[in-house]
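The instructor's notes for this session suggest beginning with a concrete chain rather than abstract definitions. Hand out the sequence below and ask the class to guess, before any prediction is shown, which regions might be ordered.
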Amino acid sequence: MNTTEQESRYAHLDRMSAAELLRGINAEDKSVPAAIEKVIPEIERLVNAVVERMKRGGRVFYIGAGTSGRLGVVDASEIPPTYGVRDKFIGLIAGGDSAIRTAVEGAEDDPVQAWQDILPYKPDANDCVIGIAASGGTPYVIGGLQTAREKGLLTGCITCNEGTPLAEACEYPIAAVVGPEFVTGSTRMKAGTAQKLILNMISTSVMVLLGHVKGCRMVDMELSNKKLVDRGTRMIMEATGIEDYAYARELLLKYGKVRQAVEASYRSGEKGN
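After discussion, reveal the predicted structure:
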């Protein structure tokens, strides 16, 4: 039996107090980072391979169903505002976008549909497909990876069981085994947390290695709200020595990105004081 389906270590949850439930969930969650630490070498191999493909113009497709699919969509959706990169990370979920909010019956059992969902994006050999499935047995994800691999795309996966068909279907498998869930079989809990953390690690590392971070700053972030405009303004002040907040903000709004504003300031030699 897969570890994600094993019986919870906690019996009689229905008899626990709120405090007991919370402490139990927290105790289980503490095991997730340790499980991920064990597979950092596998994550590193996938990250390096993805970076090489993306340097050639490739993209990353996340495919998944249910919670796993939603996590892929979330990670892909966060790349444009964070790093100013559009259409490079694409999240696809079994059942289409409506499945983000409402489960679509039977969608995850179709082994052909994932590749059909990728086709409108005109995939090529520079692209990468990362399948996400806690169980490691979801037909939608396995079928998508198998076809992608046959077509010459780079393939990887994130699962929470060892020795799964999903891992066998790809070149760069990652299996973060987090053990039984607090609520038996509820993989939105520890397994979902592990998947989210690994997705953070993959996309962040890829974006840093591709040059979208300077020092520790998101210099290509989109200015989608007042908070980010303020953050970007202060980043420009720190990078250039400009002391006039209003002038730094004017530069940012003129050039649209911290990187371009800083480069323009250096070219002109202006300090705005």
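Then share the key points. The chain has eleven helices and five strands. Residues 190-209 form the longest helix (20 residues).
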